[in-house]
Amino acid sequence: MNSDLTEPYAENILVVDDTRDNLRLLSAMLTEKGYVVRKALNGQMALTACQTVLPDLILLDVMMPGMDGYEVCQKLKANEKTRDIPVIFISALNDVLDKVKAFDVGSADYITKPFQEAEVLSRVGNQLKLRSLQIKLQEKNILLEKTLGELKNAEVQLVQNEKMVAMGQLVAGIAHEINNPINSIYGNITYIREYIKDLVSLLEAYQEESPKMTAKIQQIVDTIDLNFLLNDTHNIIGAMHRGAERIQHLVISLRNFSRLDEAEMKPVNIHEGIDNSLLMLQHRLRETETHPPIQVIKDYGNLPLVTCYASEINQVFMHILNNAIDALQQVTQYSLLTSGSQSNPLATSQYQLPTIRICTELIGSHTVRIRIADNGPGIPESVQSRLFDPFFTTKPPGSGTGLGLSISYQIVVQKHRGQLLCCSSPGQGAEFAIEIPVHQTE
């Protein structure tokens, strides 16, 4: 039903009857009241007329040759385009069963012949008012759904911003607290190594100049096992140097992962972001008492630098990798529980090592695709349609907020004009594909 700001809208009524006198009578009656009336002599003409211009109401005779009113009504209700049009049956049949059958096939009302003008106009008016109210209600429902979706997106964005701020503060604090002492340790190890080297040289020179040691010195040499101590000192210093280097790399990776100082888009190395995300998750990939190790297979293609919000794309990698780890740990823990023992599940020949495979490739010259797949239990088809809905989660209460994939979808699709897709089958694992343009257009 349309509305016009300049002229009042005249409702369109389709009258279907094989008796021409009835058509003329009803047409005159309705036209006089300002309705636009179209006429059809049989069911097929009525269906064709509905496809041409949708009527606001149909007056439909029951008894017609070829296709009766019941069949016409069934076809109208089976068609998505015409199913909401109200149908009023007009018939000389006054039996209760006839009326019940009419309502069963979708009739909105029933008028018995010979009909009275006042009754016809009253029933037509009532149905048109109901139809008008239904349309207004549908429009309000659509508006409410849109508003609700916008509110959910706003809430997700608010949570996302809060998480970003919290993570930024945490990363900045950790990086600062770790960086200062580790720089001091790393810088002083070089001096310690030189000092020990000098002391060893002095000790060796003393041994050459005074080969005869007193009983007390010989006892100390034997007690501390001097030769072992000298050799092991170099090993310890080397281990300390490597450990300090690793901590420095962790601090750098933490900074690169969060990229707190990069609020704007800029060209970045996607592989570096994936590697930093994996480094942050190393503790979850290692073997524990209840979970076997998770192997990560990287199949990196030759990618150009990609213009994006680096910290947010890193979050997408983190969310998807975390979900893959959760799925793999869930299935391996279940295997341990059902096996009846706490023995290593890798000892059985039928066990498949939990694996995450990461593949990157350039599609054409303008799009980068990152695929993250696991060999976990997979995602049921009934769930896949809701994966990216805010606050939807399949995890046990307290294990997830249902925001990870929703936030990821907003980052990839809305902020980077890309695509985030999921392909999964129960028992066949799950694969998430991230596609983003190499360069973002203004």
Structure summarized in a few sentences:
Residues 12-128 form the Response regulatory domain. The protein has helices spanning 20-32, 43-52, 69-78, 96-104, 117-209, 215-224, 226-258, 270-280, 282-285, 310-339, 381-384, 404-415; strands at residues 12-16, 36-40, 57-61, 87-91, 109-112, 266-268, 295-299, 306-308, 355-363, 367-374, 419-424, 430-437.
List the helices and strands and how they pair.
Blueprint: E1 12-16, H1 20-32, E2 36-40, H2 43-52, E3 57-61, H3 69-78, E4 87-91, H4 96-104, E5 109-112, H5 117-209, H6 215-224, H7 226-258, E6 266-268, H8 270-280, H9 282-285, E7 295-299, E8 306-308, H10 310-339, E9 355-363, E10 367-374, H11 381-384, H12 404-415, E11 419-424, E12 430-437
Parallel strand pairs: 1-2, 1-3, 3-4, 4-5, 7-9
Antiparallel strand pairs: 6-8, 9-10, 10-12, 11-12
Helix pairs in contact: 2-3, 5-7, 7-8, 8-10, 10-12
Domain Response regulatory: 12-128
Catalytic activity: ATP + protein L-histidine = ADP + protein N-phospho-L-histidine
EC number: 2.7.13.3
